[in-house]
Design a protein that fits this description.
Keywords: Kinase, Membrane, Phosphoprotein, Transferase, Transmembrane, Transmembrane helix
CATH class of the largest domain: Mainly Alpha
Oligomer: single chain
Structural class: alpha+beta
GO biological process, one term: osmosensory signaling via phosphorelay pathway
Shape: rod-shaped
Catalytic activity: ATP + protein L-histidine = ADP + protein N-phospho-L-histidine
Transmembrane segments: 176-200
Strand content: 5-15%
Helix content: over 70%
CATH topology of the largest domain: Four Helix Bundle (Hemerythrin (Met), subunit A)
GO molecular function: phosphorelay response regulator activity; phosphorelay sensor kinase activity; protein kinase activator activity
Amino acid sequence: MRSTAALLLVGLLALMGIVGTTLWLVERTQIYFNEVVEAREARGAAVDLRALLQDAETSQRGYVITGDPIYLDPYNDAQPLIAEARARLDAVLAPYPQAAEPLAQLHTDIDFKLSELNRTIDLVAAGQRDQAIEIVGTDAGNQAMERARTFFEMLIEAADQRIESGVKDQRDTANLLRIVSIVGALAIFAVIAGAIWAVLSYTQALANARKAVEEANAGLEERVRERTVDLGKANEEIQRFAYIVTHDLRAPLVNIMGFTAELETSIDEVKAYMEGQEADENDPVSSQARLAATEDLPEALTFIRAATRKMDGLINAILKISREGRRQLKPEPVELADLVEATAAAVHHQVAESDGTIETDIRVGQLITDRLSLEQILGNMLDNAVKYQEPERPLRVIIRARHVPGNRVVIEIQDNGRGIADTDHERVFELFRRSGSQKNPGEGIGLAHVRTMVRSLGGDVTLTSQLGEGTTFIINLPRDSRGFLGRLGA
């Protein structure tokens, strides 16, 4: 991953360098091109203006020599064009302050030359050719024309040098751009080749890792299967042991309960006899025997009876859990709405006694699960809602069910009962543990049994509760338990 990231970074830097250099070279090329265009425009303006002046001068000489007006046609044609050429030359040289003084001298010379041409032509037309020739012979116009030619030659030479330099700069820039493009392409190709190598290496590593994981998973699944079988056997042994222990404990408990009943009968007779005898206040032994027969022994037997009944209830609870654990779960199609309605109907009369209601909102269709286990789970939850309702308000129970991601289903049983303290949210699911007031009968195995059954179906149960406001039990189950139960069976 680091190699790939480094190669990508190099490629990015190379691409940024190529783009930046290309933009700079393109900008330089544009500058050189603009300079060449400006030089060509200046050269063209100078050449055109020089040619027009030369045409006008040649036309004037022909007319002066021959007196034939036909020689004036080039002169007349050049007059408007000279003005345009001068304006064009001014526009081209306007960005260059150093050309202002020579340009002003050029205009002065051109004006002088044109004035001379006009005067000589007018004199010839008036029949004064000698005076026209005399003006030409002063050589003033020729000097002005020579200064103009010098200006044009220098401007054309400078433009030619500038054009040559601009073309050379453009050629150098193009060559440099070509080199940069080639180097950049080689760098990008190198980066691409490196990235392909890194990707292939990484892909090969992934393939090797996947192969190793598949081999490990194959062995892991076999080990998990073996451990699951071992755990299943151990669980069966524990359940068998619990069944045997509780069964063996029950035998002496039955004897104790039987002898306790006989003792109660005997104590009743002794109590009746002692109560029929007159008390002898001078005989302390008689008083103690009377007290023992009428109060102490009946009270002790009451405690013994209560303890044996509680122990009998605990043993029955353990036997119930043991038998339930040994029962073979049978996944089958279950219409959840029908099962919830049937379970609610079973406790409807108890809820109606306190003007309570049971509402349902089932948005789940058919489940594949163990029907008896789900009936016992919902029945136990509703029994708890009835048992631990708040006496000061009518009981209200809401049963909801909905689909959740992972092909699972959530069932919520919400009541407005007495609630469960925050410290007891997990404690109530422990065996023989209860929360809050213990005035309601029970051994503390209901929720522990519910959690055991829910987990045996491949789910889990949690709760949210506020003391004095109510409790919501949340049961999360797979929509189809066959896969989970199949693994357990294996």
